[in-house]
Write the structure tokens for this entry.
Amino acid sequence: MEVSENITTNKQHFDVVISGGGLSGSLMALSLLPLKTHEGKPLSIAIIEAINAKPLSQNTHSNQKTSESVFDDRVLALSHASAQYLKQLGTWSYIQDHAQPITDIHISDRGYYGKARIKAEDHLTANHGKVDAVGYVIEMSKLGLAIQKSLTEQSKNKVKAETDKLNNLTWFTPDAIEQIKWHPASVDITLKSKTQLSASLLIGCDGVNSICRQAANIDCDKSDYGQSALITNVSTKLAHQGVAYERFTESGPIAMLPMVKVANEGSRSSLVWTLTPDQADEINALTDDEFKTKLEHAFGSWLGGIEKVGKRHIYPLSLVQAQEQIFHRMVLIGNASHTIHPIAGQGFNLGLRDVQSLAKSLDKTLAEKGDIGAFNRLTEYAISRKTDHGHIINLTDSLVTLFSNEHFPLVAGRNMGLKVLNYVPVIKNTFVNKAMGY
């Protein structure tokens, strides 16, 4: 693909401008590509991304020829519903060989009797009947590349079917928003490169430190959990056999998520170990052999010995919730709107439902020949997402309180709860359906 080195100073208008070209921003663009304006033309879409994403064939404005990945090496737990939506978008075929099915979930409380076992084959969904997996584990970098391939493929198909003018996705990368001005019928955007854009709708997919949210002076409710997540990939002596483990310990929850086997590696799992910041720093400073011993002691022998440890990362944990999801001709999506604790693995899935819901809302608006940036239309979207946001945020917040606490009444209560979850089918089915995104 050709990369233009000349940045025009003339204002360019787009139907939609997306701030952020990571997972949420790219998925948002992919979801909007099939939509048509009132005149039957495809929406004109721009993505602004600070890291040089260097898409394969979309129109691109760039100041440099080097590139770096906008996607890091962490893994994501995709719910069953998220996987179905990725199939609908045409992305699943690119990642299915890299996505490890979660066929079972083992939940336990170290040193106590409470345990719960969930098997995918025991559960039914309203639209899909029996399922083979409650979810999937995928490396973020693999998913990111798959989304880029889907964007490229869709653009190619449009060009073949009609004309080059329908290659309606333009990237501005590496670049970022410097200033936003709101007008009754549009949003004016100045980039750091001094490129001038305008849009009927601005979508903030730019993460927890969202430029869009800050420019609109939208405050956040923040709750610091006083915890950090130590994240790494490990290989184990015993095969994981598609089992995801959630192990609650006195130092914090340990999640072991199964990963696809690769050549010359043992059975791989992704570790998310929740600790106090001091504990995380202390454990992170251990040698690999010391770390293996510490992890084996905390996690137990479910997967045998820890044979290999990858690069370790530490992330502070907090709940961040924007007080408003929308503004004049602007919507906040994913982490720009809400950043939650990883204890239930629901953060990405919640953001993906934001994307899906907004695309559906904009499609309805266009079908009714409405204004996609009209505040009443955006309000309908915000109201439609309020319940889901509330349920997931309350769930994760409650789990953090319940399972990161050693007070006896809470310990006894959570162990009784695990027993009930394990043996009462109605409660178990409700829990599993929620975990699967339904």
Summary: Residues 12-70+141-221+320-390 form a domain with the FAD/NAD(P)-binding domain fold (CATH 3.50.50.60). DSSP finds eleven helices and 23 strands in the chain.
